[in-house]
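For homework, think about our next protein:
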Amino acid sequence: MVRRLFIILSLFSILLVVALAQRWPAAWWLFVIIGPFILLGLFDMSQRRHTIRRIYPVIGNLRYLFEAIRPEIQQYFVESDTNGLPFSREFRSLVYQRAKGVRDTRPFGTVFEVYRPGYEWMNPSLAPHPAPAQEPRVSIGGADCSQPYAASHLNISAMSYGALGRNAILALNKGARLGGFAHNTGEGGISSWHLEHGGDLVWQIGTGYFGCRTPQGRFDAELFAERARLPQVKMIEIKLSQGAKPGHGGILPAAKVTEEIARIRLVPQGEDVISPPGHTAFDSPLGLLEFIARLRELSGGKPVGFKLCVGHRAEFFGICKAMLETGITPDFITVDGSEGGTGAAPIELTNSVGMPMRDGLLLVHNALRGIGLRDRVRLIAAGKVASAFHLARLLALGADSVNAARSMMFALGCIQSRQCNTNRCPTGVATQDPARYRQLDIDDKAERVARYHASTIRALLELTGSAGLCGPEAIRPHHIMRRIDGTDIRSYAELYPWVESGCLLQSGCVPAAWAADWRRADPREWGCRAG
């Protein structure tokens, strides 16, 4: 550990100088050289603002030195194409600025090449509206739900305790409470750290049923009901799949499975925890909806939905047919994209499996419109989001709310070192090593998370006002434009058309591109009918 090494080297240096000075008095002048470094290191270990400096005294200052001089020694540039994939250098800087509460305005105009194919923008209005003082909330919970939840347009996406360290979970949850938004637990269960600060929770139930499982790994209704009725738990999310590794299940390396995490998850300590690829509590679309109704009852009427990365179109159509057959609808559906992040997954799954966010979100939105149930189900997009414009794009495609993980981690201080699966995260965010996670200051990071959320929501309200809209719920596809090539410009309404409401219920009105998949969709089993 660098802290321990610094202390050892400092003591050794002091003793060496003292020993040398006994024979050569001039050696006392060596303290002029080593003294400032020792004092700097001691200050680094005692300050609370920068986790990297606490974990890496003295040498950690190099990062902030380079960060300070970077704008003067290089031009702004975007590492991705100009449609603004959000974790280019530009957008990472935006998150850091908003989280730290420093000025996020920019001189000299846009950094994007506005005439390059892929550039996107939002159309303004000549009759703009002033931004509302308060964010309008998104009500989640249908007629069968007795405890609906008023959600923010931006919430913390699923990240488990285990994947993240104790202080990171505490800071995220406290930030959620300060900012009035929701914190998804991830599939690792509800820990005491999720509950300590009282922030709103979305309890995610994955294929491992962590926190509500029998010793054999099956779903335990009694344990579920006990935890689901906690006042901090506002919604329940069944995870069918996630974008970074759809159809694979979660992975928690043995190095991160401490005694505490094993107790929370009800799994053996010191062994890799690998969630099964699929659920055992149900085996069909009909079973999924019956399970949703059961969880809603066991939780005391709280909103229940599911999360998926869309794959076979006919399989989601099977869920739609099951809704029509049973009359049961989820209160919400969270749509993840194949571009989603994770702490550990096979590279083939992260790169080459699953439907991208925009395509998956549009499919789910249109399918619900096609069966006439879109107004009964809220859609949450769990995609890469850093700025208010990223939020607006997803709302234009049909989302009611958005979950973000990576930008919330950046607000905590994550530098995307990609050490999440090694237990050696240099910022103390994604580690179970107490020497590292204890250096993350909970109060400071919680305020950063809340500031980032508040600034981004405020920017979203300003965006919608500039477009002449009363609020985010009024954003539609025609408000977002995309350059196809030098002179060809299309709106999202042209690129991502919405189907007619109820078209899947009328013979002869099913869109031609969907006809075969709609016919093959089977509500009684995963997969498809032949033909």
User: Anything to note?
Assistant: The first strand starts at residue 120 and ends at 122. Confidence is low (pLDDT under 50) at residues 71-86. Residues 2-74 form one domain.
